[in-house]
Write a structure and sequence with these properties.
By secondary structure, the chain is an all-alpha fold. Helices cover 64% and strands 0% of the residues. 25% of the residues are buried. Mean pLDDT is 77; it is low at 1-6, 96-117 and 204-214.
């Protein structure tokens, strides 16, 4: 479907495309609502990891029910109502577990080598797609991502090395992560990418990029 460059496609149109398994439409919805849902859920959980988990749960549900979603009001209202109910019900169940109050939840970081979450073939798919996504970035955005996310440099260190300001470095990094997310959701298995996308926000994570990616 052709969309003019400066035209913001409506949610209704995106949902119609989504119902036909259009991953580009799903990626657009994800990028449009991710940050707002995350900040909303963070108020409930007071836990960034748990808030991110809830967001991924919500978008996975959207993808799984893409052909049967029945929106009575606006899609935005539907998403936030679902987010509220999902978080409230989940936290209510966890309230009986006193261990929850003491745990630091790092499911993604600690579970990356857990075969119950992903297998080697899936991890290789992620590595390959991430390498392809990086190859589509401008040199500055790619360098910013690799210095901060892969090598674990601080913003100040990376900005100095690149000869740019800290704010410019942050802008490159934000745009790089956004572009990578969109690429992964468009070209990869959606359910798998929703599990692995949070890794993009982990500093000094060894992505083990394919040697063919420079």
């Amino acid at each position: 479907m052709y969309v003019e460059k400066n035209h913001i496609e409506t949610d209704e149109s995106l949902l119609q495309r989504l119902a036909m398994d259009d991953q580009v439409a799903f990626s657009t919805i994800y990028l449009r609502y991710h940050d707002g849902l995350y900040n909303y859920l963070l108020k409930f959980t007071k836990n960034p990891t748990k808030a991110q988990d809830f967001v991924q749960d919500i978008f996975l549900k959207i993808w799984e029910t893409r052909t049967t979603i029945n929106i009575q009001s606006s899609f935005s209202a539907y998403l936030y109502r679902y987010a509220h109910n999902h978080a409230f019900n989940h936290l209510r169940r966890l309230a009986v577990d006193t261990k929850y109050l003491q745990e630091t939840l790092h499911r993604i970081e600690l579970g990356i080598n857990d075969q119950s979450i992903i297998n080697n073939l899936q991890w290789q798919q992620y590595q390959s797609l991430l390498g392809q996504a990086l190859a589509t970035l401008t040199p500055a955005k790619k360098q910013a991502f690799e210095l901060v996310r892969t090598n674990g440099m601080s913003y100040e260190e990376a900005a100095t090395l690149m000869g740019i300001s800290r704010n410019t470095l942050k802008e490159h990094l934000v745009l790089a992560v956004k572009a990578i997310k969109q690429y992964l959701l468009t070209h990869g298995d959606v359910a798998l990418m929703l599990i692995l996308i949070p890794l993009l926000n982990i500093s000094k994570f060894n992505f083990q990029l394919l040697s063919s990616v420079t």
